[in-house]
């Protein structure tokens, strides 16, 4: 249903209108994600929305547009204990990779910053047992992965 979600504008609800988003706020985004949860959509929807917002805030209009249109798809790279993203966006440490089978990009974050990486940037990912078999889970050691875009959290 990826194409249908893209046609409905689901990946750009809170994205800037100038980049093809709807320009809605956090409230509308929360309401949409509540409904996504009821329908058990893939976690890649969240990753793609986060990636579009991160790309837009980092000034990468082309990438933001590709993500909001559904042309590009992202997966979550969830940091585990000891994972870091340096000031230049380079990573180290363990990450869980969620639902990356069809993803073009990985979205990773820590308390200090977030970054977008090409799929496979974290190296070989070992499959992990997951309670939700519809969203494949893997573990990867991200050793010095270079980001496409990185953004520090506001202080």
Give a written overview of the molecule.
With 155 residues, the chain is of the alpha+beta class. 27% of the residues lie in helices and 25% in strands. The protein is built from four helices and nine strands, in the order ααααβββββββββ. It has helices spanning 2-7, 26-39, 44-57, 61-68; strands at 74-79, 84-85, 91-92, 94-98, 105-109, 113-118, 126-128, 137-141, 149-152. The strands form two sheets. Strands 7-8-4-1-5-6-9 form a seven-stranded mixed β-sheet. A hairpin with a 5-residue loop joins strand 2 and strand 3. Helix 3 runs antiparallel to helix 4. 40% of the residues are buried.
What's the total count of β strands?
9
**Low-pLDDT ranges:** none
Strand order of the largest sheet: 7-8-4-1-5-6-9
Query: What structural class do the secondary elements suggest?
Result: alpha+beta
Shape: globular
> What can be said about the biggest beta sheet?
7 strands, mixed
Give the N-terminus to C-terminus distance in angstroms. Answer: 38 Å
- Average per-residue pLDDT, rounded, comes to 90
Helix content percent band: 25-40%
* Rg, Cα atoms, Å: 15 Å
Range of strand content: 15-25%
Write the SSE topology.
Blueprint: H1 2-7, H2 26-39, H3 44-57, H4 61-68, E1 74-79, E2 84-85, E3 91-92, E4 94-98, E5 105-109, E6 113-118, E7 126-128, E8 137-141, E9 149-152
Parallel strand pairs: 1-5
Antiparallel strand pairs: 1-4, 2-3, 4-8, 5-6, 6-9, 7-8
Helix pairs in contact: 3-4
List keywords for this structure.
single chain, 155 residues, alpha+beta, seven-stranded mixed beta sheet, two-stranded antiparallel sheet, 4 helices, 25% strand, globular
